[in-house]
Write a structure and sequence with these properties.
It is a single chain. By secondary structure, this protein is an alpha/beta fold. The chain has three domains: 3-68, Arc Repressor Mutant, subunit A, CATH 1.10.10.10; 82-159 and 263-291, 3-Layer(aba) Sandwich (D-Maltodextrin-Binding Protein, domain 2); 162-260, 3-Layer(aba) Sandwich (D-Maltodextrin-Binding Protein, domain 2), CATH 3.40.190. Helices cover 45% and strands 21% of the residues.
Length: 295
Protein backbone atom coordinates (compact mmCIF):
# COMPACT_ATOMS: atom_id res chain seq x y z
CA UNK A 1 0.00 0.00 0.00
CA UNK A 2 1.46 3.35 -1.04
CA UNK A 3 0.33 6.96 -1.26
CA UNK A 4 -1.12 6.54 -4.76
CA UNK A 5 -3.32 3.68 -3.51
CA UNK A 6 -4.63 5.93 -0.75
CA UNK A 7 -5.39 8.73 -3.22
CA UNK A 8 -7.43 6.30 -5.32
CA UNK A 9 -9.23 5.02 -2.23
CA UNK A 10 -10.11 8.54 -1.08
CA UNK A 11 -11.31 9.65 -4.51
CA UNK A 12 -13.53 6.61 -5.10
CA UNK A 13 -14.99 6.91 -1.60
CA UNK A 14 -15.74 10.62 -1.93
CA UNK A 15 -17.21 10.43 -5.44
CA UNK A 16 -18.96 7.07 -5.06
CA UNK A 17 -17.89 6.01 -8.53
CA UNK A 18 -14.87 4.31 -10.09
CA UNK A 19 -15.49 6.21 -13.33
CA UNK A 20 -15.71 9.65 -11.73
CA UNK A 21 -12.63 8.90 -9.66
CA UNK A 22 -10.76 7.96 -12.83
CA UNK A 23 -11.74 11.26 -14.44
CA UNK A 24 -10.58 13.21 -11.38
CA UNK A 25 -7.29 11.30 -11.26
CA UNK A 26 -6.75 11.67 -15.02
CA UNK A 27 -6.61 7.95 -15.70
CA UNK A 28 -8.92 5.23 -17.03
CA UNK A 29 -11.52 3.35 -15.02
CA UNK A 30 -9.75 0.00 -15.47
CA UNK A 31 -6.70 1.38 -13.67
CA UNK A 32 -8.79 2.58 -10.74
CA UNK A 33 -10.62 -0.74 -10.53
CA UNK A 34 -7.35 -2.66 -10.63
CA UNK A 35 -5.80 -0.51 -7.88
CA UNK A 36 -8.80 -0.99 -5.61
CA UNK A 37 -8.85 -4.76 -6.19
CA UNK A 38 -5.12 -4.97 -5.52
CA UNK A 39 -5.53 -3.00 -2.30
CA UNK A 40 -8.42 -5.24 -1.20
CA UNK A 41 -6.29 -8.33 -1.83
CA UNK A 42 -3.35 -6.86 0.07
CA UNK A 43 -5.50 -5.97 3.08
CA UNK A 44 -7.67 -9.07 2.89
CA UNK A 45 -10.91 -7.07 3.20
CA UNK A 46 -13.56 -5.72 0.87
CA UNK A 47 -13.44 -1.92 0.64
CA UNK A 48 -16.37 -1.15 -1.64
CA UNK A 49 -19.79 -2.58 -2.35
CA UNK A 50 -20.56 -2.46 -6.09
CA UNK A 51 -24.09 -1.56 -7.20
CA UNK A 52 -25.87 -0.11 -10.21
CA UNK A 53 -25.40 3.51 -9.07
CA UNK A 54 -21.68 3.14 -8.38
CA UNK A 55 -19.98 2.02 -5.18
CA UNK A 56 -20.32 2.59 -1.46
CA UNK A 57 -17.72 2.13 1.25
CA UNK A 58 -17.67 -0.87 3.56
CA UNK A 59 -17.02 -0.63 7.29
CA UNK A 60 -13.40 -1.59 6.63
CA UNK A 61 -12.95 1.30 4.18
CA UNK A 62 -14.53 3.71 6.61
CA UNK A 63 -12.00 2.66 9.24
CA UNK A 64 -9.14 3.06 6.77
CA UNK A 65 -10.14 6.44 5.33
CA UNK A 66 -9.12 8.59 8.34
CA UNK A 67 -5.63 7.08 8.18
CA UNK A 68 -5.50 7.76 4.45
CA UNK A 69 -6.43 11.38 5.07
CA UNK A 70 -3.80 11.78 7.75
CA UNK A 71 -1.07 10.18 5.66
CA UNK A 72 -1.85 12.28 2.56
CA UNK A 73 -2.08 15.41 4.67
CA UNK A 74 1.23 14.72 6.40
CA UNK A 75 2.94 14.19 3.06
CA UNK A 76 1.49 17.43 1.69
CA UNK A 77 2.48 19.29 4.86
CA UNK A 78 6.01 17.90 4.72
CA UNK A 79 6.38 19.10 1.14
CA UNK A 80 4.92 22.50 2.02
CA UNK A 81 7.17 22.86 5.07
CA UNK A 82 10.26 22.03 3.04
CA UNK A 83 9.40 24.71 0.48
CA UNK A 84 8.20 27.31 2.99
CA UNK A 85 10.97 29.90 3.32
CA UNK A 86 8.76 32.37 5.19
CA UNK A 87 7.38 34.07 2.09
CA UNK A 88 3.66 33.27 1.60
CA UNK A 89 3.24 31.15 -1.52
CA UNK A 90 1.73 27.87 -2.70
CA UNK A 91 -1.88 26.91 -2.10
CA UNK A 92 -4.19 27.73 0.80
CA UNK A 93 -7.53 25.91 0.93
CA UNK A 94 -9.98 27.35 3.46
CA UNK A 95 -13.70 27.21 4.14
CA UNK A 96 -16.32 29.59 5.46
CA UNK A 97 -20.01 29.97 6.16
CA UNK A 98 -21.75 31.59 3.23
CA UNK A 99 -22.88 34.44 5.51
CA UNK A 100 -19.33 34.97 6.81
CA UNK A 101 -17.90 34.86 3.30
CA UNK A 102 -20.41 37.45 2.10
CA UNK A 103 -20.21 39.76 5.12
CA UNK A 104 -16.65 39.47 6.34
CA UNK A 105 -14.33 37.57 4.04
CA UNK A 106 -14.85 39.19 0.64
CA UNK A 107 -12.80 42.34 1.40
CA UNK A 108 -10.22 40.31 3.33
CA UNK A 109 -9.81 37.92 0.42
CA UNK A 110 -9.36 40.81 -1.98
CA UNK A 111 -6.74 42.45 0.25
CA UNK A 112 -4.90 39.17 0.74
CA UNK A 113 -4.86 38.39 -3.00
CA UNK A 114 -3.35 41.80 -3.77
CA UNK A 115 -0.78 41.55 -0.99
CA UNK A 116 0.26 37.94 -1.63
CA UNK A 117 -0.27 37.19 -5.33
CA UNK A 118 1.94 34.06 -5.13
CA UNK A 119 -0.66 32.27 -2.97
CA UNK A 120 -3.33 30.22 -4.73
CA UNK A 121 -6.25 30.81 -2.38
CA UNK A 122 -9.36 28.61 -2.56
CA UNK A 123 -12.47 29.23 -0.43
CA UNK A 124 -15.25 26.64 -0.08
CA UNK A 125 -18.57 27.48 1.57
CA UNK A 126 -20.79 25.21 3.63
CA UNK A 127 -22.57 24.74 6.92
CA UNK A 128 -20.71 24.65 10.21
CA UNK A 129 -21.17 20.87 10.39
CA UNK A 130 -19.83 20.31 6.87
CA UNK A 131 -16.88 22.66 7.33
CA UNK A 132 -15.85 21.06 10.62
CA UNK A 133 -16.04 17.64 8.99
CA UNK A 134 -13.84 18.82 6.11
CA UNK A 135 -11.24 20.31 8.45
CA UNK A 136 -11.14 17.15 10.56
CA UNK A 137 -10.94 15.08 7.38
CA UNK A 138 -7.95 17.10 6.08
CA UNK A 139 -9.93 18.39 3.09
CA UNK A 140 -9.65 21.99 4.32
CA UNK A 141 -6.68 23.59 6.04
CA UNK A 142 -8.99 25.73 8.16
CA UNK A 143 -12.48 27.22 8.20
CA UNK A 144 -14.59 30.04 9.60
CA UNK A 145 -17.53 28.51 11.49
CA UNK A 146 -20.15 29.53 14.01
CA UNK A 147 -19.32 28.90 17.65
CA UNK A 148 -19.29 27.33 20.05
CA UNK A 149 -17.00 24.50 18.92
CA UNK A 150 -15.40 22.01 21.26
CA UNK A 151 -13.31 19.24 19.70
CA UNK A 152 -10.01 17.87 21.04
CA UNK A 153 -8.42 17.74 17.58
CA UNK A 154 -9.19 21.36 16.68
CA UNK A 155 -7.42 24.61 17.47
CA UNK A 156 -9.95 27.46 17.51
CA UNK A 157 -9.95 31.20 17.96
CA UNK A 158 -12.63 33.86 17.85
CA UNK A 159 -12.18 36.16 14.86
CA UNK A 160 -15.51 37.93 14.46
CA UNK A 161 -18.63 38.50 16.54
CA UNK A 162 -21.98 38.76 14.79
CA UNK A 163 -25.38 40.07 15.86
CA UNK A 164 -28.12 37.76 14.63
CA UNK A 165 -31.55 39.16 13.84
CA UNK A 166 -34.88 37.58 13.05
CA UNK A 167 -35.67 38.32 9.41
CA UNK A 168 -39.33 38.47 8.34
CA UNK A 169 -41.51 39.89 5.57
CA UNK A 170 -42.17 43.64 6.05
CA UNK A 171 -45.76 42.99 7.16
CA UNK A 172 -44.58 41.35 10.39
CA UNK A 173 -44.40 44.12 12.99
CA UNK A 174 -43.13 42.10 15.99
CA UNK A 175 -41.98 38.51 16.51
CA UNK A 176 -45.18 37.86 18.45
CA UNK A 177 -47.12 38.33 15.20
CA UNK A 178 -45.60 35.08 13.93
CA UNK A 179 -47.80 33.09 16.31
CA UNK A 180 -50.79 34.10 14.17
CA UNK A 181 -49.26 33.13 10.82
CA UNK A 182 -50.79 29.88 9.58
CA UNK A 183 -48.38 27.28 8.23
CA UNK A 184 -45.35 29.42 9.16
CA UNK A 185 -42.21 28.26 7.38
CA UNK A 186 -38.57 28.76 8.25
CA UNK A 187 -36.22 29.49 5.33
CA UNK A 188 -32.86 28.00 6.17
CA UNK A 189 -29.64 26.43 4.97
CA UNK A 190 -29.42 22.65 5.00
CA UNK A 191 -29.06 20.60 8.19
CA UNK A 192 -25.79 21.38 9.93
CA UNK A 193 -26.28 25.15 9.89
CA UNK A 194 -25.99 26.53 13.42
CA UNK A 195 -28.19 29.54 12.58
CA UNK A 196 -30.96 27.12 11.65
CA UNK A 197 -30.68 25.43 15.05
CA UNK A 198 -30.81 28.78 16.82
CA UNK A 199 -33.90 29.84 14.85
CA UNK A 200 -35.74 26.63 15.70
CA UNK A 201 -34.93 27.08 19.39
CA UNK A 202 -35.92 30.75 19.34
CA UNK A 203 -39.34 30.04 17.85
CA UNK A 204 -39.94 27.02 20.08
CA UNK A 205 -39.25 29.15 23.19
CA UNK A 206 -41.99 31.52 22.02
CA UNK A 207 -44.40 28.63 21.50
CA UNK A 208 -44.48 29.27 17.75
CA UNK A 209 -45.20 26.19 15.68
CA UNK A 210 -43.59 26.03 12.24
CA UNK A 211 -44.09 23.87 9.21
CA UNK A 212 -41.31 21.78 7.69
CA UNK A 213 -38.31 24.04 6.94
CA UNK A 214 -37.55 25.07 3.38
CA UNK A 215 -33.86 24.43 2.68
CA UNK A 216 -31.76 26.44 0.23
CA UNK A 217 -28.04 26.60 -0.47
CA UNK A 218 -27.90 30.28 -1.40
CA UNK A 219 -28.03 33.29 0.89
CA UNK A 220 -29.62 35.43 -1.83
CA UNK A 221 -32.36 32.84 -2.34
CA UNK A 222 -33.15 32.72 1.37
CA UNK A 223 -33.46 36.52 1.61
CA UNK A 224 -35.57 36.65 -1.56
CA UNK A 225 -37.96 34.00 -0.21
CA UNK A 226 -38.41 35.91 3.05
CA UNK A 227 -38.99 39.13 1.09
CA UNK A 228 -41.66 37.33 -0.95
CA UNK A 229 -43.50 36.36 2.24
CA UNK A 230 -42.66 32.66 2.09
CA UNK A 231 -41.30 32.48 5.63
CA UNK A 232 -38.74 33.73 8.17
CA UNK A 233 -35.06 33.21 8.85
CA UNK A 234 -32.22 34.11 11.22
CA UNK A 235 -29.11 35.81 9.83
CA UNK A 236 -26.33 38.23 10.80
CA UNK A 237 -27.60 41.81 10.79
CA UNK A 238 -24.96 43.02 8.34
CA UNK A 239 -25.92 40.42 5.74
CA UNK A 240 -29.48 41.72 5.43
CA UNK A 241 -28.74 45.45 5.90
CA UNK A 242 -29.14 46.26 2.20
CA UNK A 243 -32.43 44.34 1.85
CA UNK A 244 -33.75 46.14 4.91
CA UNK A 245 -32.81 49.57 3.55
CA UNK A 246 -34.62 48.69 0.34
CA UNK A 247 -37.74 47.81 2.35
CA UNK A 248 -37.75 44.23 1.10
CA UNK A 249 -37.61 42.66 4.59
CA UNK A 250 -38.04 43.57 8.25
CA UNK A 251 -35.55 42.71 10.97
CA UNK A 252 -36.24 42.16 14.65
CA UNK A 253 -33.46 42.51 17.19
CA UNK A 254 -33.13 39.81 19.83
CA UNK A 255 -31.89 39.66 23.44
CA UNK A 256 -28.10 39.60 23.60
CA UNK A 257 -27.94 35.96 24.69
CA UNK A 258 -29.82 34.89 21.57
CA UNK A 259 -28.32 37.43 19.20
CA UNK A 260 -24.58 37.23 19.83
CA UNK A 261 -22.64 34.53 18.02
CA UNK A 262 -18.89 34.18 17.64
CA UNK A 263 -17.35 33.26 14.31
CA UNK A 264 -14.37 31.02 14.97
CA UNK A 265 -11.45 30.06 12.80
CA UNK A 266 -10.69 26.38 13.30
CA UNK A 267 -7.84 24.20 12.07
CA UNK A 268 -6.48 20.85 13.06
CA UNK A 269 -4.32 21.21 16.16
CA UNK A 270 -1.72 18.85 14.70
CA UNK A 271 -1.49 20.60 11.31
CA UNK A 272 1.46 22.61 10.01
CA UNK A 273 0.72 26.35 9.90
CA UNK A 274 2.19 27.67 6.66
CA UNK A 275 3.43 31.19 6.02
CA UNK A 276 0.39 31.67 3.77
CA UNK A 277 -1.97 30.65 6.58
CA UNK A 278 -0.21 32.91 9.08
CA UNK A 279 -0.36 35.87 6.70
CA UNK A 280 -4.05 35.33 6.01
CA UNK A 281 -4.90 35.13 9.71
CA UNK A 282 -2.85 38.23 10.47
CA UNK A 283 -5.00 40.17 8.00
CA UNK A 284 -8.24 38.69 9.35
CA UNK A 285 -7.26 39.49 12.94
CA UNK A 286 -5.78 42.93 12.32
CA UNK A 287 -8.97 44.99 12.48
CA UNK A 288 -12.23 43.13 11.85
CA UNK A 289 -14.17 46.39 11.67
CA UNK A 290 -11.86 47.66 8.92
CA UNK A 291 -12.89 44.83 6.61
CA UNK A 292 -16.51 44.26 7.68
CA UNK A 293 -19.40 45.44 5.59
CA UNK A 294 -21.34 48.24 7.22
CA UNK A 295 -24.71 47.29 8.65
Amino acid sequence: MDISDLKVLESVSRLGSMNRAAQELHTVQSNVTARIRSLEEELGVELFLRHARGVSTTAAAQRLLPFAGRIMSLLAEAQAAARDDGTPSGSLVLGGLETTTALRLSPILSHFAKTYPAVRLVIATGTTHKLLDDVLGYRLEGAFVAGPVDHPDLHRETVFREELVLVTPPAIRTPDDLAHVPDLKTIVFQIGCSYRQRLESLLAERGIVTARPLEFGSLDTIVSCVAAGVGVTLLPKGVVAKARREGRIAIHELPSKQAQVDTLFVRRADAYVSSAMSAFLDIARSDPGKFAASG
